[in-house]
Specification:
This is ABM domain-containing protein. It is a single chain. The chain has helices at about 1-20, 75-95, 125-130, 135-145, 215-220, 225-230; strands spanning about 30-40, 55-65, 100-110, 115-120, 155-165, 170-175, 185, 190-195, 195, 200, 205. The chain is α+β, with helices and mostly antiparallel strands and about 240 residues long. Strands 3-4-2-5 form a 4-stranded antiparallel β-sheet. The protein has a 3-stranded antiparallel β-sheet with strand order 6-1-11, with no helix packed on it. Helix 2 runs antiparallel to helix 4 (about 135-145).
Length: about 240
């Protein structure tokens, strides 16, 4: 009993310290405390002058465990392990495979079922098909077809969205890199260091506290005044200003 009370007391003290500013909030670790927006660079890792200049494909890969045992239900761990194998291979083959990165999400339904989704971003639909018909995914595909009669409690799905240039945008405030903002791109170097080309992996997030990335229209590569006029906002509207 005493150990439980001590643990609860320590957690309460820690919560109060964070709440009253006596301790740094650990939940804000790696958060970017300003407005920032993702911009996809070109194939060499260089950013465009115009916003949203590249096309992007969004691929949602989901599974659902309709069973009280969840991950411990029959065949569930096998499927989860396959998905983990997918991610590892995709990261290993980037950027040649066209995979920019992804973020995992989970959802708990009212009936208790657990749903998981990998939200990933790609260069093209053709790149997704190259992966889907490759050996790793085909291995999982063949396993599913062999065991499908055993898997009534497991749901699987996917959705693909091809988004043209100037048809996408994003904004994050006080957020750790996530979703499109958590993707990575290879910037090809032009210098030799130690006998190797100085390539580097870069993040797509850019300062959106001012300039064209401050507004939704600007992040879409459009003229912001068109939206101002349409919705009755002036260019100095507080809606578009960063909070002081």
């Amino acid at each position: 009993m005493l150990p439980s009370i001590l643990i609860l007391g320590a957690r309460l003290a820690d919560t109060l310290a964070v709440t009253y500013g006596l301790k740094r909030n650990p939940y804000l670790k790696d958060a970017i405390m300003k407005r920032n927006s993702p911009q996809i660079p070109d194939g060499n890792g260089n950013f465009h002058e115009e916003a949203a200049h590249e096309k992007v494909v969004v691929f949602l890969l989901g599974l659902k465990l309709n069973h009280p045992l969840g991950i411990f239900s029959h065949n569930a761990k096998t499927l989860v392990d396959y998905v983990a194998k997918f991610e590892k291979e995709l990261e290993t083959k980037a950027p040649e495979g066209g995979y920019y990165g992804g973020t995992n999400w989970t959802n708990q339904e009212q009936n208790g079922a657990t749903e998981a989704v990998l939200i990933s971003y790609w260069r093209s639909i053709e790149d997704i098909h190259e992966f889907a018909y490759g050996p790793t995914h085909r291995e999982a595909w063949d396993w599913w077809n062999r065991t499908v009669a055993e898997n009534d409690h497991i749901g699987i799905n996917h959705e693909i969205f091809g988004v043209d240039q100037k048809q996408w945008e994003g904004i994050y405030i006080n957020f750790q890199p996530t979703l499109l903002g958590a993707t990575t791109y290879l910037r090809k170097g032009d210098k030799f260091i130690g006998g190797k080309v100085d390539d580097q992996w870069i993040n797509p997030l850019m300062d959106a506290s001012k300039g064209k990335l401050r507004s939704s229209a600007g992040r879409l590569g459009r003229n912001p005044t068109q939206l101002y006029e349409k919705h009755g906002l002036g260019p100095d509207s507080s809606y578009e200003k960063e909070a002081e």
